[in-house]
Write a structure and sequence with these properties.
Elements (H helix, E strand, L loop, with lengths): L3 H6 L14 H10 L2 H18 L3 H17 L3 H15 L4 H17 L3 H14 L10 H15 L3 H15 L6 H16 L3 H9 L5 E4 L5 E4 L2 H16 L3 H14 L5 H9 L3 H10 L6 H4 L1 H11 L3 H17 L8 H14 L3 H20 L6 H14 L3 H17 L3 H18 L5 H12 L9
Helix pairs in contact: 3-4, 3-23, 3-24, 4-5, 4-6, 4-23, 5-6, 6-7, 6-8, 8-9, 8-10, 9-10, 10-11, 10-12, 11-12, 12-13, 12-14, 14-15, 14-17, 15-17, 17-18, 18-19, 19-20, 19-21, 20-21, 21-22, 21-23, 22-23, 22-24
Amino acid sequence: MLNRRDFFKAGLGLTATALFPFNQAESRQLISEYCIDDGYKYLLKSINSVIHEYYDLHGKVSLSTDLAMLYAKRQYHQETIETLNKAVELAQNSYPIRLFCAFMESAKSYSIINEHVLADKAISNAREALPKISKGLFSLYPEYLISIARICCEKNENNRAILLLDKAYELSAEGLLFPLDNRLLVELAEAYSDIGLLKKAEDAANKIIPVYKTYNIYGSYVYCSDIDRVGATAYVAGRYAEMGSTKRAYELLNEINQQTKTKSKEIITAYAKLKEWEKAMSLTAAEEESEFFLINCPYLVITKHAVSAGRGDVAADALNKMARAVENNNDSLYWRIPESIIETADVFLLLGDDDNAIKYLKYAVEKSQALLEDGGSMFYPTDLAKAGAVWLKMGNISEGVGLLHEALEHIITQNDDFLKGSSLINIAEIFFNSNIAIKEKEKELLRRIVDSCEGENYDI
């Protein structure tokens, strides 16, 4: 077994904390010592090259802001700012909605690198651009404010997050007869909950219209379900449970149960947080036939909370039921099912069940390949890379890196340059999260990806 320094010397670059836990200072020193960071910059420059080749202006703006987010997550300040400036410059010649989104996406990346003055300026510019876009898209503004507030919350900048959420709440308080506003209130209730402002979260959830009617495209009334309000209220109940206020959590769940028979992932999550394992399992079993069961993965929710509570027996039971549901699901080619299977494998690994982890990793790749053969899937390379990341956690470097290489090989064959860029961005994040070094093999594949673009190529 290699020790962590020999692991880096071998050029593998895997800093998986599950294998070699060590502090961040040592991690940064090792990454610098073995030039792993230079490889990441090469990867990011390759993405920039692909974006440069894409002929569609609107797509360039979107891909550029995604690239800037990657730079920001790596804390490459100069590259983040330069890329965002270029994206805004391109957006000036695009549709007004694209310029608005470029400003707001910029604010998100600036917040990650603590450039709050630039973030505030970008938000202000976006606000000025609002009158030029369709009124039906105005809800994008508070939606972006919520997403920026969540970034601030993750960075423990709670005062800034609260200001942004309060502003979003103010902007979302009108026109509640539209489903879009309901969705914003759900997001606000969840965001207030995450920051610990549970009374405000309850207020937001209570403003959601539980059953409302609106016009459909044929001009007749249709009645919308109460799932928005149920989900938001249950989410708040779950947060009460996490914070030890179990009495209020039960009160909210009892209110929900008295008013509706609607079930949701949030209700199951709340019962799991209350350690009501039998209740959570029974609700989940009743939902196995629902259309989006494998996308929402309620058994995985129970498993993760059971692991945190030290209930390995409950976790194993839930995960085995999840595995059975995956195998028995009739809609086996649904486009996001591979991701759910990979997550199932990852949790089996967490429980120390390597055999089942391997079984479901292989199963996920098979399903993803079947999707591809059934008409193509833009997520195929990302699915391969995610499966590779779990193999790496297991210490199987050959299998993990092999899938990452296969994912890059597939990007070469994709016909759409925008798809090449978006796939490469998704895979780059997996490389970063797994801390895999970009060596000559990876650089060769990246060069081939750039060369496969239809536009005029240039040296990176």
